[in-house]
Design brief:
Elements (H helix, E strand, L loop, with lengths): L3 H13 L1 H13 L11 E2 L3 E4 L3 E4 L4 E4 L2 E4 L2 E9 L2 E12 L6 H27 L6 H6 L10 E7 L20 H4 L8 E3 L6 H4 L6 H9 L4 H9 L5 E3 H11 L11 E3 H38 L5 H7 L4 H8 L1
Length: 327
């Protein structure tokens, strides 16, 4: 059985791999086209610290800073070519092993803390370089009219086999108001990848082992479909990290030897099926022995050689249970 801590650690380490990280965004944004280059990804500090307000200490009658600090799962920077022009962008992934019912708020906080961090950084740079202020408005904000911030795209990768039944946008978390009021409420939508409901056609759009990981989780509750998915897939010889994610998220018992870099998942599943078959055969033999013993004791009771209480005791049953079995 998976533990939340172990599952989170394993999935986070897996999604941090550049090939997997890029694959997730290429699927989300470009339908599988290889636009985000894994080699261009650079890890960014996931600590988001921002001082959103200047507040006053009532006792000292002076300003103090109220700092807010949050930690993302993974944040990377990259440059994407669009229309022969390079675009700098920040990409973040929040990996979920369980459904989070406040995900729109959580992601929104991360994104806006990052935007606030950029604004604060730009203002600090202006002060350090003693840049010329061209208006009173620029002086007040510290952010100049020509300054620009870098876009942030945050993606949720949910590794659970159940359907995501949490909110996918901010307004899903609110009581329904009149359309007149709701049109003034700013919404925030999450981007979500989940195994549940993903088609085999869409799985083919993934180029990394994320295809097999999502597929195995998708079919984990139907062993026949899982086996068919795996045996028909020529790419089931996968890296250990991907195998670990499948193991922890599907509760499979996959034996991985020390020093191995890859594992044949089909062979691992075959071994698991054979082990289960052996257990079932042994259980069948035991069941047969118990049935035989029950028949003998039943006949002894019917012939008056043994009373029912003694027979029940020999079968580790109550007298009522033994009577039911006799019928």
């Amino acid at each position: 059985m998976k533990t939340i801590g172990a599952a989170d650690t394993i999935t986070k380490a897996y999604i941090r791999e550049n090939a997997v990280f890029a694959d997730a965004f290429n699927y989300l944004i470009y339908g599988g086209r290889q636009v985000v280059n894994p080699e261009e990804l650079k890890e960014v500090d996931t600590t988001e610290i921002i001082i959103p307000f200047n507040t006053y200490d009532e006792n000292k009658d002076e300003k103090k800073n109220a700092a807010v600090q949050k930690y993302r799962d993974v944040l990377k920077s990259t440059v994407i070519m669009q229309d022969s022009q390079a675009a700098y962008i920040l990409l973040g992934i929040e990996n979920q092993t369980d459904i989070h019912y406040a995900m729109p708020v959580r992601n929104g906080i991360y994104d806006f803390l990052q935007y606030g961090k950029q604004v604060s950084g730009i203002a600090a740079r202006h002060r350090k370089q003693k840049d010329k202020v061209r208006s009173h408005a620029e002086f007040l904000s510290g952010f100049y009219k020509t300054d620009r911030i870098v876009p942030v795209v945050t993606l949720v990768v949910y590794f659970g086999s159940d359907e995501w039944d949490g909110p996918v946008k901010l307004t899903d978390m609110m009581e329904k108001l009149s359309s007149t009021l709701m049109k003034y409420v700013q919404d925030y939508k999450i981007h979500l990848i989940q195994p549940y409901g993903i088609s085999d056609k869409d799985l083919q759009k993934f180029q990394s082992s994320l295809r097999e990981v999502l597929g195995c989780i998708k079919y984990s509750k139907d062993k026949e479909k899982l086996w068919n998915f795996m045996k028909d897939n020529p790419r089931m010889n996968m890296d250990i990290m991907a195998a670990r994610v499948i193991e922890v998220m599907t509760n499979m018992s996959i034996e991985i030897s020390d020093g191995e870099e890859t594992i044949d998942m089909c062979k691992a599943i075959e071994d698991m099926i054979e082990e289960r078959a052996c257990i079932e055969r042994e259980e069948g033999k035991l069941e047969g022995k118990l049935e035989g013993k029950l028949e003998i004791l039943t006949n002894l009771v019917k012939d008056g050689i043994l009373n029912m209480q003694e027979a029940a005791k020999r079968m580790n049953m109550t007298t009522e249970e033994f009577r039911t079995k006799m019928k």
